[in-house]
Sequence to fold (199 residues):
Amino acid sequence: MISLEKFSRREQAVIMAGSVIAGLILAYFFVLEPAFDSYRGMKEEIAKTAEMVARYKGAASGAPSVEAEKAIYESDFKRMMDSVFINETDPLAAAQLSEIVRAKAATAGISLSSSKTEKAEQAQGFRLINLSVSFNASLSTLASFMRDVQNDQKRIVVREAKITSQKEDYADTQPEVLSVRLMLTGLRFVSGGEKSEAK
Fold:
């Protein structure tokens, strides 16, 4: 590792600032950009899933000649239902989402500074359940947490993210600590007869 002692104070400050900026750029490209792409894809998946649910219902009430197709729909329907929250209300779904996120954070060695349920939104056949969390973590810990969240059986994506370095200057042996605020979104399935909840 290069010793900074041979550089002037000003040169050291420039090098450290460059390291911080490089770390944030890496965080964006390797952690956040894939997460944002995942959230953008969620909107498209909502319409496709709602259509699949309607087709499943039609196949389930059809004649025996459609048994093979019905089995396919049942498998797809089960996989879809396993990936969404099926709680009776938005607050119950948000509590389940919060529990999952807290468990993932604990596994990654992260202590959440805050966790707040944000306003849910209506989508085609679903409700978007939003949860904002904030915490401090190194880049590697953040990446591990994000990977664990996105690999969960439930479909959870990052909707918004704000990441800043806690300070400009770190010792060579000290990992950079990031201040992180994330908005995480999950889907709550809304049954056909359920009325839309007040916004």
Remarks:
- The helical segments are 9-60, 67-83, 90-108, 139-150.
